[in-house]
Design goal:
Elements lengths: L1 E2 L97 E3 L2 E3 L7 E9 L5 E7 L8 H5 L11 E11 L9 E6 H10 L11 H9 L2 H8 L6 H15 L11 H8 L8 H15 L8 E6 L10 E9 L3 E7 L5 E10 L9 E3 L2 E5 H10 L11 E6 L13 E3 L2 E4 L7 E4 L21 E7 L2 E12 L9 E12 L3 E4 L10
Helix pairs in contact: 2-7, 3-5, 4-6, 6-7
Length: 506
């Protein structure tokens, strides 16, 4: 048996009551998930007026001025990325509706039951399939300190680079996950790249097909296109990329069959062979991301191969990934079989290397699931082509040198920006047949949440738990901010944003 990895398990989306999050306007700076605030004794209404890095909801007194969350204007979110207005929806409870709280810049409906933990374990069967068991561990104390003290993103001494490997889990029925593209991106550069790069300048209304295709181009698709292995799907992405370059007035163009040119457009500078074009690529990444030392957007890419343990989930490995760095995965395949799947918030702590590297799994979402699940939860026409979905699991920090992070039961999540067609989902807790749990208002023993039909663009997901006095009507409930993360919804894709705690070496 294996302790649960930090890959997000299979999910099925459901219609549920959506956490109220204001009107989607951008209102100033966000708080991160820092230390618990100390009440301001000099304030007549008990509001917090500290300057520490925290976002824990104030619960000690009645909030009389609508500032029930510490609003110290912290400049660094839990994800380690700079906070900018386009990712947040609130800075105080007064900006939230329906009884929701402003936690980590996101309006969240608070839990109505005390949090507890559940341990999730995978077993590989003789036929290669995987059986998962989840057991409540109410006797085990939870630990959320890594989200509040910054230890989740510590920078210990160790090798400058590492080998990152893992498996590609599949969501939904279908073939094994062999032959899928796994790419590793520098996350702090990726977010502004997606938000302000050439693809973002296309008119999503007038040029919807090109807008979608431009965001789908990646390194493995560049490889296939340059090698002539394309049925026209990738050529459409290349055309869209050139249209985006033309729209922005760039004098650069991806020449026919130019692998280096394709790499340069997507920021895969490390694999460019032409010295001049490599320098151009590096300059583009620094300029678009606004990060002076960002010399590549993509650290490496590979195709997944059959797993040596015989399981249905393929494996991959990418060399020379910088340590103590926050990164994101993109997993992709043929459009007829898969949907692009982004995974944010993955961190290569140098002290978590075992042997020659570290294991960080990723996920793939099937095209058939994308098409069949939405009608079952109220979207007869499916997810809008320009929209996508975000999903993840909520876990505690784990115990360094001990147990892995475990699922949090009775946690709630929220998103910054939604539409009337967006729905929040929690699940039934059956890891081998994950189904909607009608009317469920918080996470089950699987810790899972999701939102379907999210509009494209910047977004932020945050989560919270209650640790004492949690029942409806109870006085002085104690709330804990578990995590907050910036993401960017590209069209026709799924985002995985799991609050994983600290990965235990194995």
């Amino acid at each position: 048996m294996n302790a649960r990895s930090n890959a997000f398990p299979s999910f099925i989306l459901m219609v549920a009551t959506l956490a109220a999050c204001g009107d989607g306007s951008n209102n100033g700076l966000n708080q991160d998930t820092g230390v618990t605030p100390t009440p301001d004794a000099g304030s007549p209404d008990g509001t917090v007026a500290d300057d520490t890095s925290d976002a824990t909801v104030e619960t000690d007194t009645v909030d009389t001025d609508g500032a029930g969350t510490d609003a110290s204007g912290d400049a660094t979110p839990d994800s380690g990325n700079p906070v900018t207005d386009e990712y947040i929806a609130c800075t105080s409870n007064s900006e939230c509706a329906g009884g929701s709280q402003c936690v980590g810049g996101v309006c969240i409906i608070p839990p109505q039951a005390a949090a507890l933990l559940a341990e999730e374990v995978d077993t590989i069967n003789d036929d290669g399939t995987i059986t998962t068991t989840i057991t409540e561990r109410a006797d085990e104390p939870f630990d959320f300190s890594c989200y509040s003290d910054g230890s989740i993103y510590a920078t210990p001494e160790g090798p400058a680079t590492t080998r990152v490997s893992g498996i590609v889990e599949r969501f939904g029925s279908g073939p094994a996950t062999n032959g899928l593209c796994v790419s590793i991106y520098r996350e702090d550069a990726l977010l502004p790249w997606l938000g302000t790069g050439e693809c973002s300048q296309l008119d999503s209304d007038a040029d919807e097909e090109q807008y979608i295709a431009c965001y789908q181009l990646d390194a493995c698709r560049c490889d296939a296109w340059a090698a002539g292995d394309d049925d026209g799907e990738i050529a459409t992405m290349i055309d869209a990329a050139n249209l985006a370059l033309e729209t922005t007035g760039s004098d650069f163009e991806i020449a026919d069959g130019s692998l280096d040119g394709c790499y340069a457009f997507i920021g895969n500078c490390v694999d460019i062979t032409d010295a001049t074009l490599k320098a151009t690529c590096e300059a583009r990444v620094a300029e678009i991301s606004g990060i002076a030392d960002a010399t590549t957007l993509i650290y490496g890419h590979t195709l997944s191969v059959e797993n040596e343990d015989g399981s249905e989930f393929a494996q991959f490995a990418i060399e020379n990934v910088p340590t103590n760095t926050l990164f994101a995965y993109k997993t992709s395949g043929r459009e007829t079989r898969w949907r692009d799947t982004w995974e944010y918030g993955l961190y290569t702590r140098a002290d978590l290397i075992v042997g020659d590297g570290m294991r960080i799994d990723t996920n793939a979402v099937s095209a058939s699931t994308w098409q069949t699940i939405p009608p079952a939860v109220g979207f007869a026409g499916g997810i809008d082509d320009l929209n996508g979905a975000v999903a993840g699991a909520i876990r505690d920090c784990g115990v360094e040198g001990g147990r892995a992070p475990w699922n949090v039961v009775h946690a709630t999540a929220g998103f910054s920006f939604i539409s009337a067609q967006t729905r929040l989902a929690y699940f039934n807790g059956n890891p081998n047949n994950r189904l909607p749990a009608g009317g469920r208002i918080d996470s089950n023993i699987d810790g899972l949440f999701a939102a379907i039909n999210l509009p494209p663009g910047p977004n932020r997901v945050s989560s919270m738990a209650c640790t004492a006095n949690c029942e409806p009507g109870a006085s002085n409930p104690t709330y804990v901010a578990i995590g907050a993360r910036n993401v960017f919804q590209t069209p026709k894709s799924v985002i995985i944003a799991t609050f994983e705690g600290i990965t235990v070496p194995r």
